[in-house]
Each structure stands twice: as C-alpha cells, then as structure tokens.
Design goal:
This protein folds into 2 domains: about 35 residues; about 70 residues. Helix content is about 75%, strand content about 0%. By secondary structure, it is mostly helical. The protein is built from 4 helices and no strands. Helix 2 packs parallel to helix 4 and helix 3 packs antiparallel against helix 4.
Length: about 110
Amino acid sequence: MQVVARGLTNEKTYHMILVIIISVRDETMLQRALGSGWGILLPGGIIAVLAFAGLSLDAWRILIVLGLVLTPAMLYHRRLRHFVLLPSGIALIGGMMLVVMNLRVLG
C-alpha cells in the first residue's frame, strides 16, 4: 500500500525534505547534549586550580558542603536553575579530590 503525499508529486523530493529535517533535528539534539559538558569541565578546572593551592582536608569538606547546599538553592531559583551543574560538579569533583587526598594520607 502506497501513501500519496498531497502536493508533492516527486517522491525523491519528499524523502530529501525528511532527510534534511531529521539531520537538522539530530544536530540540535547533539548540541544540547554536548552543551552541558561545561557544567563538569568548568568545576573540574576550578578544582584543579584549588588542588595546587594546597587546601587542607577541612577546607575541601567545606567546599563540598557549600556545593551541596548551593545545588538545591540554585535549583529552585528561576534564573540560576540553568547553572545547577556548577555547584554540584564542584561538590562531586571536590569529593573525588578528598578521597584521593585521604588515600594519600592513609597510604
């Protein structure tokens, strides 16, 4: 059974339009998926700079707690909601640094 599109007499033209729509849609979906990568890369850079500052274990714990407290506060704020990955990324990567530092102290 063949479906006939109204107003389109050439099937190749119809298929080409579908290919263009799908490729444009997939490109914007890919850009949206990759757009949130900065939410982890930027905090990772901040943590890397702080790692060379020689912070104590207590300072790292305070940094993690601040990240955890700011995350829900930013989530409920209308304008800051879009940047919620920044404090949660700092808390996550700061926690990873704290684990590495504790392993180094214990080992």
